[in-house]
Amino acid sequence: MEPFPSDPTPASDPPAGAPPVLPYRAPEKNEARWRMPLPAQLIFGILFFFGSVALVGVTAVGAGPLALVVFVGLILMAAYVHREWKWSAFTMGIFLSIGASILFVGICAVVNMR
């Protein structure tokens, strides 16, 4: 093993003068389609989730394996709304609904066990 050098190279000083001006731009405004406010996007996400659960359930009872095709189509529709319409809270509403549904089922299971 070689020992560390005792005389490190001196750090170079920055050049004298005015600092360079960087070409900053203002960030693009993330404007949702139809100027939809975030609470409304959240509510639409929640309604979309429960409507999707109902639609996939009815399709599973009526058409069986076709429910998988409907499920994938609904996922693609939610991704489209999130990406193209720039409704960020729409997806948040879907995930909050999933979490609330899991919590509700867990509470019901605990209550039924007593």
Describe it.
With about 110 residues, this protein is an all-alpha fold. The chain is about 60% helix and about 0% strand. It has three helices and no strands. Helix 1 (about 40-65) packs across helix 3 (about 90-114) and helix 2 crosses helix 3. The chain starts with about 35 loop residues before the first helix and ends with a helix.
Q: Based on helices, strands and strand pairing, what is the structural class?
A: mainly alpha
Instruction: Summarize the amount of helix as a percent range.
Output: 55-70%
Shape: elongated
Number of DSSP-assigned strands: 0
The protein's oligomeric status is single chain
Radius of gyration: 27 Å
Return residue spans where pLDDT drops below 50 for at least 5 consecutive residues.
none
State the helix count: 3
Proportion of residues in β-strands: under 5%
Distance between the termini: 69 Å
Biggest sheet layout:
none
Write a short abstract of this structure:
This protein is mostly helical and 114 residues long. Helices cover 62% and strands 0% of the residues. It has a domain at 37-113.
What are its keywords?
114 residues; mainly alpha; 62% helix; 0% strand
Q: How would the blueprint of this fold be written?
A:
Elements: H1 38-63, H2 66-84, H3 88-113
